Amino acid sequence: MQHRHLLPNEIDLLLDGEVGFGVAPLRAHVDGCEDCQARLARSRKIVDVLEDLEHFAPSVRFADRVMAQVQIVEPWHVAALDTARRFVPQSASMRTIMAATASAAALALTSGAVWLALHADLTLYSLNLAAGRARTMLMDSAASIIGTAFGQSGLDTLRSSGLRGLALGAGVMIVAVGGATFGLRALASSSRRSRE
Ligand SMILES: [Zn+2]
Question: Where in the chain are the domains?
Answer without folding.
Answer: 8-52, 91-195
